[in-house]
């Protein structure tokens, strides 16, 4: 409920000051392209990349000797998704700058700029990854996780803001796309939560070795 209240509040603030109408049909098409590129980046590839790399932990929990090939495959797929997401987001931002123009007057634009800074900072963080076992590894992981997860959630919120602005400016409803996007977000959230419990659920079906009697007497 708190998240939904925050989302509604951000949506109301984000649409304030939106333009009354598109200047031309060409501008409308460029805005649509911007929206699709951002959806592909923030609404699909970025969350998918995060889900992929998170599956490495449940895989380690499920298999006592997990295949390094499986783990590395997921890791490289994570990188591919994130690079593609970065490329699409950059392309979407470039389309808006070059073809439409923006001066960062509104919440949607400012939030978009903040998100772009976050996702461009992520590759830099990735290249500076300390070796496993290093005392800096936990700090690096926390920063990487906060920036990545934060960019994803802010991106999803900004997509909702952008959709609402488009509806107000164009005077058309895109409710079906809104529903489809919301369902996809719900599925990804479910998978995100499932990953935390996957190893635990599998372990419930395992036969645990009996505890030695002398250990129980300690």
TrEMBL record:
InterPro entries with a match to the protein in the record: CYB561D1/2, Cyt_b561/ferric_Rdtase_TM
One Gene Ontology MF term: metal ion binding
Region forming the signal peptide: 1-20
Bilayer-crossing regions: 36-53, 74-98, 110-128, 140-161, 173-194
Cofactor: heme b
Gene3D superfamilies: 1.20.120.1770
Name of the featured protein: Cytochrome b561 domain-containing protein
